[in-house]
Design goal:
2 copies of one chain form a homodimer. Chain A is of the alpha/beta class. Chain A has helices at 4-11, 15-22, 30-43, 49-56, 72-87, 101-112, 128-131, 159-172, 188-203, 220-231, 245-257, 275-279, 291-307; strands spanning 61-66, 91-96, 118-121, 140-143, 154-157, 178-181, 213-214, 239-242, 267-269, 286-288, 316-319, 322-324. In chain A, the strands form 3 sheets. Chain A has a 6-stranded parallel beta sheet with strand order 2-1-3-4-5-11, sandwiched between helices. In chain A, strands 7-6-8-9 form a 4-stranded parallel beta sheet, sandwiched between helices. A two-stranded antiparallel sheet of chain A has the order 10-12. At the A-B interface, α4, α5, β2, α6 and α11 of A face α4, α5, β2, α6 and α11 of B. Chains A, B: GO terms for molecular function: DNA-binding transcription factor activity; transcription cis-regulatory region binding.
Chain lengths: 329, 329
Amino acid sequence: MATIKEVAAKTGLSPTTVSRVINNHPYVDDSKRKKVLQAMQELGYVPNSSARRLRGQKTNTIAVIISRIVNPFFSHLVDAMERIAGEKGYQLILCDSRLNKDRELAHLELLKAKQVDGIILASLQNDWEAIEPFTKYGPVICCNEYDIKAQMPVIRCDQQYGGYIGTKHLIEKGHTKIAYAGGADRIQLTLDRKTGFLKALKEHGLTLPEEWMFPSFYGIEDGKNIFQRIYAMEDRPTAIFAGGDEVAAGIIQEAKRFHCRVPDELAVVGFDNQPIADLIDPGITTIEQPMKLMGTRAMEMMVDMIKNKKKVTYKKEILPLQLVVRQST
Amino acid sequence: MATIKEVAAKTGLSPTTVSRVINNHPYVDDSKRKKVLQAMQELGYVPNSSARRLRGQKTNTIAVIISRIVNPFFSHLVDAMERIAGEKGYQLILCDSRLNKDRELAHLELLKAKQVDGIILASLQNDWEAIEPFTKYGPVICCNEYDIKAQMPVIRCDQQYGGYIGTKHLIEKGHTKIAYAGGADRIQLTLDRKTGFLKALKEHGLTLPEEWMFPSFYGIEDGKNIFQRIYAMEDRPTAIFAGGDEVAAGIIQEAKRFHCRVPDELAVVGFDNQPIADLIDPGITTIEQPMKLMGTRAMEMMVDMIKNKKKVTYKKEILPLQLVVRQST
DNA sequence: CTGAAAGCGCTTACAG
DNA sequence: CTGAAAGCGCTTACAG
């Protein structure tokens, strides 16, 4: 691979001038600029990224940490981020924590090693105490997940409201026995969602037995599993609010297999409004999360923070959520 | 951020020795090693990635080029790659070509800029002539898509066989009027699949009218569109072989909306065996592609090529495909 | 086992 | 408008 020196030698100019041409610096004689451009072309010269990074102290690379790329929620989020990053001239490093704390921490080290200019946390396995030390090495923002104590910018949805409207919808449909399948309480996002759920129940004087709460479930198989557990109960709920469309889809599919009619015998509400919610039969009533918008805004904010080094005042953007009614309720 | 010099100063040793400790070099006095380790700990020292890259001429980063991350096929492929990359100590840069030739070429430049050690092409928009010049700057391999003329390693599935067995299955079910929805002929993968399709037809003396061929379709919306076009035909096919489960799902959903019974009035075969194939009703008969295996093997091969600089002899791995029968046929 | 020195390939004051 | 020189932070022969 040709270096800047070779281009300089070929043109009889100095590396400094070649560098100026590469970087579109003004004050370069036009005929010389042309000569350099041509030499670069002929040599197939491309500036060495590592040298530029070392010298310029920036990488034009951003890392995004997610917990499971095969979850359509995350793939849509990442899709939006990748698009904006590309437009702004940044590369995207995909980091999958696979719900593991240590792996998340290892990915955060990229910032200390100056391997990335910033990190977007779309999943959050560690407490703010563990994340905080990294924030002095560069911008770190939350997108989607969040921690109430965290002193960092965040773009997220109003999860409590989402939990509330989904539950309210079920109650309005006449349900009084409503089960809940969400994530762990240590995750603020799922905790808030549950708080909204409980708030709706409370407003209507409803309670729920311990066994109707299913913590920490994520995929289709988990949904199937949940249905079986519900089906085996003496006192069954007539509706369930699931923490994701994949879980909801699993519940519905398994219900069909056991000839349990949805929504007549069991109404189901999902979360996300993934493509699958509209494809399966019955369609899943769900809470739409604006993944594209969230990914776009997060990446725009990150690039903005990188470019305007001055610490952006700790920003918070909360996006609206809305109910999409289909046939599962 | 602390540098190696500061660690050296703090311990009273030379940068050379500190470097040796960082790199687990033998021949370092044990007590000195401990001192260095402690100083690094206290200073929160992490080696600067750019400096190491520049000096060592390697980046420990690999780029994967796909065409649409929200396609579950690609997200599963990328998931497998990310896992192996992490295990082997590599970062993964996600590059989405969005089916655009120029964007693909721009991503290949990463290799010339020495910003990555190698590139895995899981999507292929350009001809071999356009790709070839990049191969002298580092390992480039194909995974999934391929070009018959390409002189580079490839891990792929036997697409022709896939097209053949899917069609054969429909013929065995008694169909003689079979439509086909695949990608463009300029893509070798889809061309081979079509060749397999046509081979099966030919073996049974079947032909198909021009209007039963739907080129270049990818997503759910395209599937819906295709169904409508079929539905409007005077002489309708009784079965269709779609180039992906998303397209098949779109066809099935739209068929339901028009009260066209699947498989009785229209049998549908998909491709990939994505989760959705098992979730929608009727389940999609499809050709299973081993995405996890393909992604894993591709990343293993890439790391192997990077580590053993000697040009690996142009390798070719063809993975088996198999029919998964569900209710859509 | 240890360290001084060179150099990876750039960019940026600085001086002209 | 142009160039010589320094330096970003490492690692690796080389010499001891």
